[in-house]
Design brief:
409 residues; alpha/beta; Lyase, Ornithine Decarboxylase, Chain A, domain 1; TIM Barrel; 2 domains; nine-stranded mixed beta sheet; 12 helices; binds ligand LLP
Length: 409
């Protein structure tokens, strides 16, 4: 079921017409479908049902506490990468024994917090981090569960800026270093090595790199002869931003995962972010001005790269769809841009688009993951509102930031 669709040429999120909302709330704003989030979670979980994995939603993809609460209700845990995300996950009701903490640069304070809260795993990304955790755990007199993150040196076909599993990337330990770490870990008396973890990148649309990763994990398990309690396979499952994007076949992958789980008698953890929330939101924005360029028309929106960074940062293509469809054509190419004083503050360019007027509303599609969570106050612009729809009801889950809080510092 599609939760974001047209009815009689009017864009709807669940049972609410976006046109009606723009008369109530000032744009721009993020607009989510709760039903869509729930359905994505269920479908992800169903794919891997046989393996009964712990699903730790990757909070960096969307850290709105109301969204975390929805996922908590579905049974989700959390993958966090900072003290702030950890506290937010706990505040949303997610139990510490369902939280894993990754990241190459955890600070002393963040490590103390994670130890005190007794989270499921601190996923360690270097030998020196393990030494520091061991020291802090000793002082706090708390034996601490860790996972060790593997860098499998696998080139997952995705944007070069979101790949994490190649030898040149800063994440995890190389196979050789990880094996030697495992064989010496007993010296770190305050740690329990409960897991091996891996995450090879984001927006991956083929099962192959995941299959290769399982092979590397098998080799390590054999060579270290460690029976890891948990194997954390990370996130990275891509979604279709463009019609021609192929779909990842999670069913095929799930068969391999289940075989692996049985063979090594371990519990599986996943850390999906984008696959759960990516397609569940649009960013509703107004055409502030139309301007004739020398060979195209600019549609200058009231939302910019401060509100939605993915295009400026990764050249990501997100469709922009009209709030009300018409059948008239715009003359010549049209480029959607934002107001920020940077050339990269632009979105998508169309050869043909429907006829558009100033003050019309449009929506940037598929912005639920790494949309609001990557937004900023650049150009001293307030963070915009986030609204969620459940059937016919709209609820504000983040108020537009008060400009006063911005101008005093
Ligand atoms: N686990 C770890 C350790 C990660 O580093 C990430 C994402 C995830 C899980 C979740 O990955 P996902 O399932 O969402 O692909 N801002 C970029 C994506 C950066 C991803 C960073 N790590 C973007 O907008 O494409």
């Amino acid at each position: 079921m599609s939760y974001i669709r047209y009815k009689n040429n009017n864009l709807f999120v669940e049972n609410v017409s976006v046109r009606r909302l723009v008369s109530k709330f000032s744009s721009p704003f993020y607009l989510y479908s709760e039903g869509n989030i729930i359905e994505n979670y269920k479908s992800f979980s169903n794919n891997f049902k046989k393996s009964n994995p712990l699903i730790c939603f990757s909070v960096k993809a969307n850290s709105n506490i109301q969204i975390l609460k929805i996922l908590k209700k579905m049974g989700s845990g959390a993958d966090v990468v900072s003290g702030g995300e950890l506290l937010k996950a706990i505040k949303s009701g997610i139990k510490p024994n369902k939280i894993v903490f990754s990241g190459v640069g955890k600070t002393e304070d963040e490590i103390k917090l994670a130890i005190r809260k007794k989270i499921l795993l601190i996923n360690v990304e270097s030998e020196n981090e393990a030494i520091l955790i061991n020291k802090i755990a000793g002082k706090l007199k708390k034996k601490t569960a860790i996972g060790i993150r593997l860098n499998p040196d696998i080139n997952a076909p995705t944007h070069k800026k979101i790949s994490t599993g190649k030898a040149e990337d800063k994440f995890g330990l190389s196979k050789t270093n990880l094996i030697s770490f495992c064989l010496n870990v007993k010296k770190l008396k305050n740690l329990k090595l409960n897991a091996i973890s891996v995450h090879i990148g984001s927006q991956i649309l083929s099962e192959n790199p995941f299959k290769k990763t399982l092979k590397v994990l098998e080799e390590i398990i054999k060579r270290t002869a460690i029976n890891f309690k948990f194997v954390d396979l990370g996130g990275g499952f891509g979604i279709s931003y463009k019609k021609k994007d192929k779909k990842i076949n999670l069913k095929n992958y799930s068969i391999l995962v289940e075989k692996f789980r049985k063979k090594y008698n371990c519990n599986i953890i996943f850390e999906p972010g984008r696959a759960i929330v990516g397609d569940t939101a649009i960013l509703v924005t107004k055409v502030q001005y139309l301007k004739k360029g020398s060979n195209k028309t600019f549609a200058i929106l009231n939302a910019g790269m401060n509100d939605f960074m993915r295009t400026a940062l990764y050249d990501a293509v997100h469709n922009i769809i009209p709030v009300i469809k018409n059948s008239k054509k715009n003359k010549g190419p049209l480029e959607f841009v934002g107001p920020i004083c940077e050339t990269t503050c632009k979105f998508v360019k169309y050869k043909k688009y429907q006829s558009l007027n100033q003050t019309d509303y449009v929506a940037i599609a598929d912005v639920g993951a790494y949309g609001a969570s990557l937004s900023s106050n650049y150009n001293t612009k307030p963070l915009i509102a986030e609204i969620i729809i459940n059937k016919a009801k709209a609820r504000i889950i983040r108020k537009k930031q008060d400009i006063k809080s911005l101008i005093n510092q």
